Structure prediction request, 321 residues.
Amino acid sequence: MNVRQLRYFLQIAELGSVTRAAEVLHIAQPALSRQMRSLEEDLDATLLHRSERGITLTEAGESLRESAVELLRHFDRVRSEVRDRSGDASGELTIALPPSMSELLAFPVIQRFRTSFPNVLLKVFEGSSGVLDAWSMVAQGRADLAVVASGEPLASLEAFPFIEEPMCLIGPPGSGLAMNKPLNVEDLVDRPMVAMSRPNVGRMIVESAMAERNFRLNVAMEVNTRQLVLKAVESGLGFTTLPLCSGSDLLERGAISMAPIDGVVISWLLIKGREQGLSVAGQRMQLMLRQVAHEQISTGRWPLARLKGFMPSEDGAVRHL
Prediction:
């Protein structure tokens, strides 16, 4: 069994056809079939079930597919580390980020990283709680780094404090909300809310804080994406509660108004695999995430947010915060 055979196998599994896989891989179909027979003989197992409808995986094939993805990712990481030491960084880097940080963190970091590492294939996954399980992505080796809301860390992961910011009440322009006028949780009670659909960490944080004081949100509408929630609020359909970073762009343009909720905060963590070392590109990405966050906070674009943990410098030194 070798790396090439595993890549061939995964391509067949994805397309469900040896013929189509051969076309994508630019290899003759008989040669590809021979590689698969050799792989099955080496493993002493039937991996592919062939029928008129195409190729499906046997139980052994499904097991190999799960392992092959992790094996190839580890192989690519090792190859990238060796190349990093011999010249320009290359290979792949995968990060998972919450959609609430698109404007303030994700896009500026992507721009900076692409300029510094044009030969690295950067893969960025974005999704809300319940759609993107960034914890599992990193634990399973499908992502190198992720920013997640605080939670119970897995034993296989390292979690570092990253950013703490207030949860905010967001309303349409002219609703009387202001960043210099914090609200109490009881100020939310009688407002019609456009809430993020469960499960959503930010919503859970606000509802828990209200439940402690025997209050409940007045949910008039549930929406499953941040963009729709903010559009509904901007249009005057109600209010919502989101992390401060979620509405920064709209707040700057005067499309919404916003006020922090006193004592209700969301903490973000930066996580990576405990056993997998980061490539040079991965280490640089970790640094860039902190640098960009620091810049956005210090310039006032991310008001009331606090950078937590440490701030690495260009020379690798660490300044604890």
